[in-house]
Structure of Putative tricarboxylic transport membrane protein:
Amino acid sequence: MEILETGAPQPPSHTAGEPAPSRPPGRRTALRIIGGTVAAVAIGVASFGSISSAAAGQDIHSSLTLIAPAAAGGGWDTVAREMQQAQRANGLAANVQVVNMPGAGGTIALGNMSRLEGRANTMLVGGTGLLAATIQYDSAATLDDVTPLAVLFEEYDVIVVPADSPYETLDDLVGAWRENPGAVPWTGGGSFDQLVVTDLALAAGIDPVDTTYISSDGGGEAVAALLNGTVQAAAGGYPDNIDQIESGRLRALALVAEEPVAGIDIPTAREQGYDVTLANWRMLAAPAGITPDETGELTELIEDTLATPEWVSAVDRYHWTEQVITGAALAPFLDEEHARITRLYEEMGQ
């Protein structure tokens, strides 16, 4: 897959674990991370010191830290702050703080989290993007270095084109793309979106390596690239695109979900003959080395949080689809997703 960069070099919008990957990054990876790595590491070290001090000897319900492995305002930060609000409003934890620890797709926060072994009053927000970053950057820290607690929900991508695009249907778009893959440039707002484009290419019988993908720094830049004609199609989170779709500036061709979603009047890619179902799920993890009782207590806290009116309202407001996975079902799910995402990166030629 030919990948072109737009804008100044930035760290990936979804973050991961060690300040430096265990293998030298390629030119593309270096371009993405070099501009922000030093600052991200400095923030991470400072935050880690405060968390480590605060976490020692604290009860889960008296003091809780939620780590968002990205800057304020992004998807992981939103999850952390909505959890914080729900827990405070319902007295589930007396003192809940959110700490932003951006850098390298989330792996800086993951690496720091692996140094908080046994600290049961700290949870890390993560998900598909964090798992993908550990694979993409071959990071030293992986999800094996923390204690996964729960998958919370799924957020789905939507395939969009400009409203004046000649492509009226997904078949129209795929037909032109298949005929000349490099002549139909794509974009997306993050690494997850590139995985969706790759998965759609495979489902359509197109070699992802032949596709032109122009990397955008977030959903806003991706929409701008569509509207100014830089690209012809994009994959992006439904919440990030709904306003543009409803205003008539973008045309939605497909929702990337296993089955139709209530309240979203967009046919799925699967319904149109393309078996693409990769979901942007979000999860919570605790440090390694916590006891089974502490794992159970944290899982119960999460379940209680998900039942609050504040959290239910957030799920509706952000168009999330509740998909809670805990306990024995969690490890097999993560293993399957790891294998799936690894295969997609291999198909990209990375």
User: Anything to note?
Assistant: Confidence is low (pLDDT under 50) at residues 6-46. Residues 239 and 318 are 6 Å apart (CA to CA).
